[in-house]
Amino acid sequence: MSPVKRADLEAVYARLSGPLFRGPIASARTVEELEAARVEALGRKSGLTELLKGLKDLSLDEKREFAPKVQALKAEFEALVEKRRAELEAAADEASLQSLDLDLSLPALAPARGRRHPLAQTLDEMAAIFGLMGYSWAEGPLVEDERHNFEALNIPEHHAARDLQDTFYLQDMPLLLRTHTSPVQIRTMESVRPPLRVICPGRVFRHEAVDATHSAVFHQVEGLAVDKGITFADLKGTLQTFLQRLFGPKTKTRFLPSYYPFTEPSADVYASCIFCSGSGCPICKRTGWIEIMGAGMVHPNVFKAVDYDPEVWSGFAFGIGVDRVAMLRLGVPDLRLFYENDLRFLKQFDESLL
Ligand code: DAH
């Protein structure tokens, strides 16, 4: 059909593919000029659109031959427009940079570097020492029930430790905020069979008046080792090694008899004062010793509560106050500073200090 039509279209094609539209696109000096050139070349009223519409009047063979050429021309125009647009935008960016009067050679401001909280650093270091001794890390919930926090630890119902004065109980629920990390001992023994060695680090809560050495929130590292034939000598050796790694090889240790419901016998463990090496100073109240933790041999009732046979298994446990160790090692006189999180305070504690 329609050879005339085809000749018309070819004439239009020849005209369009010349410099008529390419020129204005390539030489547009602004985005606005470019847009005008684009509308001329590719817009709804442009010759190219006419050409595309005219394709439908051609025979099938003609269409096959002619349509790809027209499409290619369209694609070429579009590419030209995009290229010119990118050039103009780059030039505009450059111009606005120049006009800003920037000195790109000025050194950048160093971004502020964060660091681990001093309590976290202290806790990590303590955990690392036990890690080297083969202890694994266990965690438990902060909201506990009475069984894990008290009963299974052989703390009977009317024991002073359950006193409302010390324990935060949840309203209308038989739950509380754990007062120590010892419940994680129980949870661990409930879930694995002995032998085992774990530390249980974490946050604990007590209803206490806050002052320089007391906080309602503080941190403990609990430890527990259970095996056949563990004795008090293992407890002493382990804690002595730990304290010497923590405070230095010259550190001496002292074990004084004490009482905890979940251990028998129980001891309070002291390290020679790290400030006066034992000769007596205000920090150790002139005794030469600093109390670091409670410890003892796991009470048979505790084993019974988790279905371990106390005739077969024995073990020791200990509980260390992290905050106190951090105060001693970092020379921080007031516990509250750790919880106020004033950046001027925190910034002093680089990981390298410990
Ligand atoms: N749970 C004790 C407390 O919070 C600390 C403690 C003492 C833990 C002796 C122990 C231990 O495992 O054997 O004061």
Task: Write a structural description.
The chain is built from 12 helices and 9 strands. The protein has a 7-stranded mixed beta sheet with strand order 1-4-5-9-8-7-6, with helices on both faces. A two-stranded antiparallel ribbon has the order 2-3. By secondary structure, the protein is an alpha+beta fold. It starts with a helix and ends in an 8-residue tail after the last helix. 44% of the residues lie in helices and 18% in strands. The mean pLDDT is 91. It folds into 2 domains: 3-99; 118-353, 2-Layer Sandwich (BirA Bifunctional Protein, domain 2), CATH 3.30.930. The radius of gyration is 40 Å and the shape is elongated. 3,4-dihydroxyphenylalanine binds at residues 180, 182, 222, 260, 263, 294-296, 317-319.
Low-confidence stretches: none
Bound molecules: 3,4-dihydroxyphenylalanine
The helix/strand series, from N terminus to C terminus, equals: HHHHHEEHEHEEHEEEHEHHH
How would you state the average pLDDT, rounded? 91
CATH structural fold name of the largest domain: BirA Bifunctional Protein, domain 2
Computed Rg: 40 Å
Number of helices, counting only DSSP H or I runs of 4 residues or more: 12
Q: SS-based structural class?
A: alpha+beta
Count of distinct strands: 9
CATH superfamily caption of the largest domain: Bira Bifunctional Protein, Domain 2
Instruction: Estimate the helix proportion, in percent.
Output: 40-55%
- How far apart are the termini? 93 Å
**CATH class of the largest domain, anyone?**
Alpha Beta
Shape: elongated
- Count of domains: 2
Report the portion of residues in β strands.
15-25%
Query: What is the CATH architecture descriptor of the largest domain?
Result: 2-Layer Sandwich
Q: Going across the major beta sheet, what is the strand order?
A: 1-4-5-9-8-7-6
What is the makeup of the main sheet? 7 strands, mixed
